[in-house]
């Protein structure tokens, strides 16, 4: 339970780290990019609407200037004989036709403020303008562009008037600008779907209509900021909608042109960028989470596997330590057993002398012969036990390697004899074949014996796993190879080793045996010993067929 909790904690930590660490730079980069783009887009939107206001202001100013110039040109061409009567009427009508759709009507005002001639759809020929503000302003200034007013016709309109002295008296030519033509010019398309332009006078009255609501001479209730500069821009809310505004002076400051556009359209690029950022964050976040889940799970599994491997290695180390202690104990047991064996051997020698002395006097020859044979068997078995204890003591000694000349033709059969009985008990036939020309090698007998016994014991285990107690075969073959090396092969017809395990067979603590039956150190130690002798230890195996270990040791003459 503790291991599972620890594994879950590691997985959770890896998952959080893999999500948070990439998410921070992603969020920072997206946020910086978005705010940079948003700021630039807003500046561009403001710049665009300001430019639209500038362009329309120039267009309207030019229009008004041209209308003034037209009237001044007409009035300048007027001769003294055309100041009244039919000729004056004809001239004014011709000028109105020349203006096309721009002018709605036109009238020539005499020095007394009455129409000397009038052309247009309204009945204004007999009207007296001497007391009107626009008439007085025109006489004083020489020209005048009025605000929109009702006048005698009771229809919202504005006029352009110019004055000229003829024979010392002031004559005025007045024309009404077509409000439809002027309004269409002011509010011409080109500011998106929600953009609109309109003109207000100083009192906040509409001088042109507004598409979103606002007729001529209606008051605009929106609180516009003061027009301290020729061009200002600002944002505000009107009728529940947020707008981006630009305001410019017109008509010598008497009017102000307002250009406005809904923010949702003006800042459409920013809104779309915001949606794009959200989409990128969602997609990027999803990718990060999926990858984090996958990678963290794999890493967690890997770490968990490594932790289990370390735990297994710790167990194998403990088992190896116990086996080492057992080896030391076995060497001590062998030493202790060897002492009574020597006493038994001495007593047996005394017994044989006694038997020899009494043989001549023994009346039962057969019994004496049997006793003698028993004594000989005791002698053989005691010798055998002594040999075994000597080999155990020799194998268990931890002395420094004693490299010496070794005759493999004599050495290998003895090693085979040490495991032959164990093999025969398991129904395994062990053969040892040594070529007569095999070279002498320089090696430590104890170490080489350790290598060979380990290889033979492994072969016995593999054969028993496959065949049980019948049909096993182990062959030890020693010969000289083409490089003057001693080549020793140990071949069995056991269970074999799979290809995956072959690549790790010489790694410390790796074993193919069942838990508790091996430490995984034997082949690793054997490999190290052969390497120290300047040789090599290799393996070839087929699963289900058998295994061959090959030991190559340089010959003495090499």
Automatic annotation (TrEMBL):
Record's subcellular location: Cell membrane
Spans traversing the lipid bilayer: 12-38, 266-295
Coiled coil stretches, renumbered: none
Record-level GO cellular component terms: plasma membrane
Domain of life: Bacteria
Membrane topology note: Multi-pass membrane protein
Matching InterPro entries: dCache_1, HATPase_C_sf, HATPase_dom, His_kinase_dom, HisK_dim/P_dom, HisK_dim/P_sf, Sig_transdc_His_kin-like_C
Alphabetical list of CDD domains matching this protein: HisKA
Substrates-to-products reaction catalysed: ATP + protein L-histidine = ADP + protein N-phospho-L-histidine
Pfam families, per database record: dCache_1 (PF02743), HATPase_c (PF02518)
The entry's keywords: ATP-binding, Cell membrane, Kinase, Membrane, Nucleotide-binding, Phosphoprotein, Transferase, Transmembrane, Transmembrane helix, Two-component regulatory system
Chief localisation class: membrane
Histidine kinase domain residues: 332-557
EC number: 2.7.13.3
PANTHER family, per database record: PEROXIDE STRESS-ACTIVATED HISTIDINE KINASE MAK3, SENSOR HISTIDINE KINASE
Protein name: histidine kinase
Organism annotation: Pseudodesulfovibrio mercurii
């Amino acid at each position: 339970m503790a291991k599972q909790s620890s594994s879950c904690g590691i997985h959770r930590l890896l998952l959080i780290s893999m999500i948070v660490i990439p998410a921070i730079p992603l969020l920072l980069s997206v946020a910086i990019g978005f705010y940079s783009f948003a700021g630039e887009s807003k500046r561009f939107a403001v710049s665009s609407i300001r430019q639209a206001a500038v362009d329309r202001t120039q267009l309207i100013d030019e229009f008004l200037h041209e209308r003034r110039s037209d009237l001044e040109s007409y009035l300048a061409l007027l001769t003294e004989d055309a100041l009244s009567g039919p000729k004056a009427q004809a001239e004014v009508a011709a000028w109105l036709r020349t203006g096309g759709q721009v002018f709605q009507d036109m009238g020539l005002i005499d020095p007394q403020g009455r129409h000397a001639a009038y052309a247009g759809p309204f009945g204004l020929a007999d009207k007296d303008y001497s007391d009107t503000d626009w008439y007085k302003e025109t006489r004083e200034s020489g020209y005048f562009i009025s605000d929109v007013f009702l006048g005698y016709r009771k229809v919202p309109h504005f006029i352009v008037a110019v004055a000229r002295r003829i024979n010392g008296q002031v004559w005025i030519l007045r024309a009404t600008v077509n409000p439809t033509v002027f309004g269409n010019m002011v509010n011409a398309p080109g500011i998106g779907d929600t953009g609109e332009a309109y003109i207000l006078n100083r009192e906040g009255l509409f001088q042109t209509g507004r598409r979103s609501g606002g007729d001529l001479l209606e008051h605009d209730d929106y609180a516009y900021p003061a027009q301290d500069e020729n061009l200002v821009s600002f944002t505000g809310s009107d009728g529940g909608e947020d707008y981006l505004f630009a305001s410019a002076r017109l008509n010598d400051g008497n009017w102000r042109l307002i250009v406005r556009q809904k923010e949702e359209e003006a800042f459409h690029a920013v809104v779309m960028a915001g949606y794009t950022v959200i989409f990128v964050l969602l997609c990027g976040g999803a990718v990060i989470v999926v990858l984090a889940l996958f990678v963290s799970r794999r890493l967690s599994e890997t770490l968990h596997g490594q932790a289990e491997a370390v735990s297994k290695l710790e167990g194998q180390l403990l088992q190896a330590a116990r086996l080492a202690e057992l080896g030391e104990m076995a060497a001590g047991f062998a030493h202790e057993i060897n002492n009574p064996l020597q006493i038994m051997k001495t007593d047996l020698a005394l017994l044989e002398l006694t038997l020899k002395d009494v043989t001549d006097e023994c009346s039962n020859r057969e019994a004496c012969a049997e006793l003698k044979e028993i004594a000989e068997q005791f002698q053989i078995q005691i010798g055998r036990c002594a040999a075994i204890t000597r080999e155990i003591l020799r194998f268990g000694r931890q002395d420094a390697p004693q490299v010496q000349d070794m005759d493999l033709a004599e050495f290998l059969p003895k090693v085979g004899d040490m495991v032959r009985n164990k093999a025969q008990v398991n129904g395994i036939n062990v053969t040892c074949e040594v070529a007569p020309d095999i070279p002498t090698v320089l090696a430590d007998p104890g170490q080489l014996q350790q290598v060979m016994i380990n290889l033979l014991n492994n072969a016995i285990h593999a054969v028993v796993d496959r065949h049980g107690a019948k049909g096993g075969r182990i062959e030890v073959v020693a010969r000289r190879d083409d490089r003057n090396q001693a080549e020793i092969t140990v071949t069995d017809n056991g269970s074999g080793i799979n290809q995956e395990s072959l690549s790790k067979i010489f790694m410390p603590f790796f074993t193919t045996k069942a838990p508790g039956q091996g430490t995984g150190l034997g082949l690793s130690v054997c490999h190290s010993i052969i390497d120290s002798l300047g040789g090599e230890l290799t393996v070839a195996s087929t699963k289900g067929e058998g295994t061959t270990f090959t030991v190559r040791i340089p010959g003495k003459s090499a």
